[in-house]
Amino acid sequence: MLKSRGFIFTNKEHTKAGIMSTILGILASATLGIAVYQSYLNGGGTSERHTAAALLAVVFMIIGMGLGVWSTTEKDKYRMFTVLGIFVNTLAFGMLSLILYAGAYVT
After folding, report:
1. In DSSP terms, which residues pair with 14 in a beta bridge?
2. pLDDT tens per residue across span 9-38
3. How large is the greatest C-alpha to C-alpha distance in the chain, in angstroms?
4. Which one of 39, 49, 84, 99 has the fewest beta carbons within 10 angstroms of its own beta carbon?
5. Integer Cα distance of 38 and 46 in angstroms
6. Where does the chain cross the membrane (predicted)?
7. Partner residues linked to 78 by β-bridges
8. For residue 76, is it left (φ>0), alpha (ψ between -120 and 50) or beta?
9. What is d(CA 100, CA 95) in angstroms, rounded to the nearest whole number?
């Protein structure tokens, strides 16, 4: 039988900027994914809507990365959403880089 060691009380909380960074990273990844899927359904052709979606995703990534880095400076806060936000925004940036590379060099 496991014995409880008692309660641990803390005043730590998640950073609001870290949570927003994670949300923006997820939105950027979803936006890019949907734009690529819609382009695939269109036979590989793009439209102004796909370009605008990619541009909006870039704005989400830049703001999300900035919020993630800024939230690392806050003291006595949990870091889960901060690290997750930076990771998801970096992943979305990598996804955009692959899309641009494929469009420029792959036939």
Report:
1. 78
2. 788 888 999 999 999 999 999 999 998 898
3. 64
4. 49
5. 8
6. 21-40, 52-70, 82-104
7. 14
8. left
9. 9
Tokens of 53: 């979606």
For the chain, the C-alpha Rg in angstroms (whole number) is 19
CB–CB of 36/97 below 8 Å? no
Pairwise CA distance, residues 43 & 24, whole Å: 29
Residue 23 identity (one-letter amino acid): I
For residue 45, the SS3 value is coil
pLDDT in tens, 58-105: 999 999 999 999 999 988 888 899 999 999 999 999 999 988 888 788
